[in-house]
Write a structure and sequence with these properties.
single chain, mainly beta, 5-stranded antiparallel sheet, 36% strand
Length: 138
């Protein structure tokens, strides 16, 4: 087996389906001394770059009024899982402009959700029941 094959064999197979503008929760494995714990990092994905083994994504959050950005490798063993909390509606490949925004101006619009399961559950159109005319006793 080649070296490239050995490296790619250890890669994560199930990568979460997220894109730029999505609000995500990244669960990161943190080791303190001899203990390990999982620490969540919630924020907006503002960039995604690289491909295959070198792919990374940048997440930005506001912590106590200060913007914090972290870069996570997609295939890192330290990244336990990536959960998508909200889907973002964006028109840019990189959202670096959010660094200069504050408050509501720094929000990313949410995509309209498509409820296909709800439409499938609706009953088929039924015919109205016709009642016979009332007989008059006159």
């Amino acid at each position: 087996m080649s070296l490239i094959g050995a490296v790619e064999e250890g890669l994560r197979r199930e990568v979460a389906d997220f894109s730029i503008g999505d609000t995500v929760r990244v669960s990161v494995k943190v080791s303190e001394g001899d203990k390990e714990r999982i620490q969540p990092f919630d924020g907006v994905v503002i960039a995604r770059k690289g491909s295959h083994t070198r792919e990374t994504f940048m997440v930005r959050k506001i912590s106590f009024g200060v913007g914090v950005e972290k870069i996570f490798p997609v295939h890192s063993p330290a990244v336990v899982k990536v959960e998508v909390l909200k889907r973002g509606r964006i028109r840019r490949a990189k959202l670096y402009y959010l660094r200069g925004k504050k408050g509501k101006a720094a929000k990313v619009r949410e995509k309209e959700r498509v409820y296909t399961a709800k439409a499938a559950k609706q009953p088929a159109a039924t015919k109205p029941v016709e009642t016979p005319p009332a007989e008059s006793g006159e």
